Give the backbone structure.
Amino acid sequence: MITLLLILLPAVLGSVNFLLKGKMSNIWTLLVAILELSVTGFVLLNFNPAEGYQFVWDYWWIPTLGWAWSFGIDGLGMVMLLLTNIVVFLIALFNFDKNDERQHAKNALVLIMQAALNGVFTAADPILFYIFWELALIPVYFLSAMWGGQNRIKATLKFFIYTVAGSLFMLLALLIAINKGYYFNLLDGFPELMLGRTGEFWVFWGIFIAFAIKIPIFPLHSWQPDTYTESSTTGTMLLSGVMLKMGLFGLIRWLLPVAPHAALFYSKTIIIAAIVGVLYASIIAIKQNHIKKILAFSSMAHVGMIAAVFFTGSISGWQGGVFQMFTHGINVVALFLVADILMRQTGVADIRRMGGIASLQPTLAILFFILILSSVGLPLTDSFVGEFLMLGGLYSWKMWAMILAGTSVIFSAVYLFRLYQKTMFGTTSEYAVQVKQVSWNEYMVLGICCGLSLFLGIFPNALMQISNPVIADIVNQIQG
Amino acid sequence: MAGTTALGIVSLPLAGFLFSGLLRNKLPKNIIGAVSSLSILGSFILAGTLLFNMPQNESKSFIINYFDWIVTDNFRISFSLQIDPLSELMVLIITGIGFLIHVYSIGYMHEDEGFGKFFSYLNLFVFFMLLLVMGGNLLVTFIGWEGVGLCSFLLIGFWYKNPAYNAAARKAFVMNRIGDLGLLTGMFLILYTFGTLNYNDFLGKIDADTNAILVTAIAICLFIGAVGKSAQLPLYTWLPDAMAGPTPVSALIHAATMVTAGVYLCSRCHVLFDNSVFAQNLVTYIGIATSLLAGIIGLKQSDIKKVLAYSTVSQLGLMFVAVGTGAYGVAMFHITTHAFFKALLFLTSGSVIHGMQGEQNMLKMGGLRKLMPVTWLFMLIGSLAIAGIPPFAGFFSKDQILAAAFAKSPVLFGLAFVASMITTFYMFRLMFLTFANNFRGDEHTKEHVHESPMVMLLPLGVLAVLSIIGGFLSVPEILGGQNKFIAFISPVVGVLPHHEISHSIEMMMMAAAVGGALLFIGLAFYVYRVTKMVPTDNVNELNPISKLAYNKFYIDELYDAIIVKPIKVASYAFYEFVEKYVIDFVVNTVGKLALFVGAAIRLLQTGNVSFYLFAMVISIMVFLVLQGFVFN
């Protein structure tokens, strides 16, 4: 019941926004986000990591087709719910003092998006999952297309068509699996489908393409930089913070368990593609000057490593990967917030035109620095734990994979420190002079993200113990 | 008890960091400086009390596990600290010298607007450095390892308005990260072979029967990390650039402590090197080659700090020679004496720069002995110590390195001997150019040249005393001593290899080293004092070899051409060509294809009912035919 509440609450209460205006709508949205976060907290308090699906809601929908309303929360879903509902809370906090055109519609879309995402992470029925997966696309499309940069329509249309096309492959794959008489439901346990060699081939690639576009895995990434750059910051935060994690989540929840043999067979190809993407994005990021583009390519590099490690079959690698899904989500939201602040206040996006902001806004500079360090993967920040475990997972697969992916750790220091030094250090530019005091709610967002980063860097177990047991189960069953 | 003390040693600087970082703009400078310095002194005192409570068990070590840090189903890594003679020694060096440099900085940085920030960074550095040396497993060491790199980055770029300083800071961090990737690889080799990163656990499992290739691979990986951190070939070029930071930083981080971390790591993991002749040879060759190359470059530099920087690289090279010959105790001994005299040299150079209003070019100095007599005296002590003149500190440690080199091969001894003669020469070149003859700067500067305040001179005095007597910590047997220092740390780093050198040969070596040093001091005296030669700053007047050395053998330019430029070109090509004309082209073509097919099919939708009927009939016929012939 409470699982359903997690989905319905933001959808229903979020729609109320259409009746509200400006400031009122912001207050209402923040209250709903806090309420939703509290419900998530309540679930967490009553959650037992050692068990599988909990808080189950399971009713027939179309019995003749085998479809059911099956929701449940396991350790993996729990981590993703935490991520989603923290990120939405942060976005609501970020939007608290904004008053854009149609602000109430923006707020409503954010909360509807939250409902869809919570559905994605709790659905245990494949068709149900697919429906929420597609549902999530609609609010984020409008969030990206209605507010943002000048080329936003073109960029987001490309993103939209690209992901819808990918999703159709997934639908096809799911229908193939179901048509073969193997309708499955994760509440019944691990789906041991006997698809046969060709069957698994089609199912694997169909589902994979949908996820690979969303993550994105090289070379299916070309929608990403433009969309991240042109979308509204709210849209970019949802996309990079949570939505691309849908693809990663999909890999380990819906792809590898469904087509484990094909996954093993093609693992080498995919790991190579992912690592190529990691290096490709890292190298491109070195020479970019648009602040959001640097963050977009940096995000692609970081996420590519997570995708790679999920195909290695290393338990600790997976555990690090899931941990990193969370930490990257929080970190990237805060980084895009900083980018938004800088672009809004200086009026430029080119980092060569900024400079010397540290002496004007020392607190902002310190918070930004902690976020950069976290992104660089410095020990005692959370990303280090994730990166260490993932590189270890790649090592246990093939040593060269670890060394190649590990060079991204060097590159990230190059482009992120360049970004930091160009914006914060150096002499104060004419644009940078305009940077004013950052508002309290934005400081709060940055402070929470920095605090989480340091806390989880020192006590990663606080989060890892939630998902570790179920991940070990999944990996063992895939390999079993 | 020991657990609390160890935690206290690490926490005090962290508390100092938070204190001076948060209150940097609210409290007067002197309070910030005093609290920061006292937090380091507190750690030093705590470490001092430990000295009387050293573990007495067989391995002479305490390991304290505080909590589980990273727990997965494959392994579990705890947050643990280790107290043994080696970590104790390093803690004493770090906090002792660290304290002196903090006090000195109160005077040196007094006029700087970033005073509070500076002290918070310094405290943070000490915190990470202590984690590095006290870590009970490789991953805790790695926290410190990366953390000191971070502080180095912050302090090199301390004056952040200057883009050149920022570039130097980034270069240092990135080159360290290249080494760190090696270290990381080594950690995975260890973790996935032995299932643990605890020093005592995995080192205990390595012996002559362990897979030799594995041991060599691990040793080389750790050494790659050491090469980055300790500025050895080919990753040394960041250290001279790091001189952009304030001089106390150069003394603390880039001379006395952080850069010796590589030597420390190799000594702690010496079992790996003991069991791999290949790795030992590699370390030796890299060490001696670095020492010679840096020395030659140092001969031609005119920036006072750059000379000291190359000298540091060169001395670190000699430490690695000791590591490569298996004399880990000697390497650690040289770390200790080097910390004394190199910190002294850097701080006295800071005193000179302070007096010269920030001027670092020796060609514009001269005659400072009369103007800054105390600084001159202290720097002379440091120079005599590094030159290895008895009874100064450097004599004892350097002599033992030369002996270890001789035991390995006379050629190695010869090269190390040459390296140390080069050191002597450029150090006294520095001394005479700075302090002798007449002042070469402008009148305005000369009027303002002044001796440094007491708060700077007092720490210098302590370091000067240590540079004089520090060597007596470990007087070798041949001189009637008992090598007490090396005996203290030998439970961790192993006893010195036994070699068959007769006393007479050893005496001769010693005499040659001292005699050579005196000779080169004399030569420097003649060239720079008697003939009053001042090196030219005009590159065109130099002979080709000097020109090479002056331009640092164009190593930076070489790296730029073969690594940095290609990556930048690739970055450009990927983004402007691959991204736009390959990947996006394919994607858009697929999109257009869909549009095209849609447009083609749309033509069938004519709206003409008879056409639809016709199509239907044809389709049914085709279907029936297929049904009849093909499927049956």
